[in-house]
Amino acid sequence: MTLSYESPKVAIPGTVNLNLTPSCYVSQSPNYQIQLPGTDCLVKAQIPLAHLTSFRVGGPAEWYVAPRTLEELQAGFEWAYSQGFPVTLLGAGSNLLISDRGLSGLVIGTRRLRHTKFDPNTGQVTVGAGEPLPRLAWHTAERGWQGLEWAVGIPGTVGGAVVMNAGAHGGCIAESLVNAHVLLPNGTTKILASSELGYTYRTSTLQGRSWLVTQATFQLKLGGEPDKVAADTAAHLNHRRTTQPYHLPSCGSVFRNPGEHKAGWLIEQAGLKGYQIGGAQIAQRHANFILNCGTATATDIFQLIRHVQQEVEQRWLLWLEPEVKILGEFQPI
Ligand SMILES: Cc1cc2nc3c(=O)[nH]c(=O)nc-3n(C[C@H](O)[C@H](O)[C@H](O)COP(=O)(O)OP(=O)(O)OC[C@H]3O[C@@H](n4cnc5c(N)ncnc54)[C@H](O)[C@@H]3O)c2cc1C
């Protein structure tokens, strides 16, 4: 199957949209669904996305599909292309701020791409993109395989972690990834070695394009004592729970650390801990976290992000770049 396909037309934050009605993208009513040709996979209209993100905010997807196989993924891309729809890729939604208006076109959720294969001879583990990263960390630890202990507190999928080069406690994906299988919007597949992904701090060349990671292989170190590796893994989780606010919805760190400075320290020094817009608040425990205190909208969070950027710039002459991916349309501030 060969198709030409445009890259996703994701609106850039701050775009002025002069045509703000209706309040979300409606081409069909909720409950309307279509079967992807040649599969039994359903594409559904008007699916709420807030509960599919860790911020718990955002409007619906105009269309949503959660394929289980490569064939279903290919059929999803082909259908979107045939309809002229932009495509957005969604893992666990733990690093996303989705507009209150929702997203136009097709959202492809990867959570059902789940499989894991351990090779005890090589120490390599191959995992589907939808596998939760903490689950992978526990499963490798209980075998005594070392290398992913740091990953246990990151609530994303393997695919999202490969794209984001997720990391914590001095470790990151780039250090153990062997390769990633990707599906291109034209239906073809590629195997990309870790060295081809341009990995730097929380960055890869997969960001900003619609290449879907379907699975990834990691090289781990064999021969560890399972109890010890599990204890190290648990220690990382406990440390995070005591230093970071896990009790309310968030996306983890909102801003990238600029150079040697920690974004959280810069925000704290600007006096912004506890600052609130609507239901969104800068966490007291960790100033690089924005919390949804229960009633936040995506707009509240977006405005708070802008406020922090402006205040930090005024105080430190530094513009903080968001680590969180901002999707959909937001009013300029
Ligand atoms: C409480 C909390 C703590 C966190 N702590 C950390 C931390 O310590 N370190 C850290 O690095 N991050 C952290 N994060 C952020 C987040 O968990 C990571 O960035 C994670 O890797 C995102 O994975 P995801 O599956 O949720 O991706 P999503 O948020 O769904 O998507 C992120 C980006 O990846 C793309 N994407 C997702 N899946 C695929 C795929 N299969 N193929 C292609 N593109 C894809 C999306 O389109 C989007 O651009 C934290 C988040 C929370 C809520």
Quaternary arrangement of the chains shown? Answer: single chain
Biggest sheet overview: 5 strands, mixed
Low-confidence stretches: 1-21
Bound molecules: flavin-adenine dinucleotide
Description:
- The chain has 333 residues and is α+β, with helices and mostly antiparallel strands.
- Among the domains are: 116-243, Uridine Diphospho-n-acetylenolpyruvylglucosamine Reductase, domain 3 (2-Layer Sandwich), CATH 3.30.465.10; 263-322, UDP-N-acetylenolpyruvoylglucosamine reductase, C-terminal domain (Uridine Diphospho-n-acetylenolpyruvylglucosamine Reductase, domain 1, Alpha-Beta Complex).
- Helices cover 22% and strands 22% of the residues.
- Strands 1-2-3-6-4 form a 5-stranded mixed beta sheet, with helices on one face.
- A hairpin with a 6-residue loop joins strand 1 and strand 2 (42-48).
Question: What key phrases describe this protein's structure?
Answer:
disordered N terminus; single chain; 6 helices; 333 residues; Uridine Diphospho-n-acetylenolpyruvylglucosamine Reductase, domain 1; five-stranded mixed sheet
Which SSEs are present, and which pair or pack?
Blueprint: E1 33-35, E2 42-48, E3 60-65, H1 70-83, E4 87-90, E5 96-98, E6 103-109, E7 116-119, E8 124-128, H2 133-141, H3 158-164, E9 167-168, E10 171-172, E11 177-183, E12 189-193, E13 212-219, H4 226-243, H5 263-269, E14 276-277, E15 280-282, E16 290-292, H6 298-316, E17 325-327
Parallel strand pairs: 3-6, 4-6, 5-17
Antiparallel strand pairs: 1-2, 2-3, 7-8, 8-13, 9-10, 11-12, 11-13, 14-15, 15-16
The protein binds flavin-adenine dinucleotide (FAD).
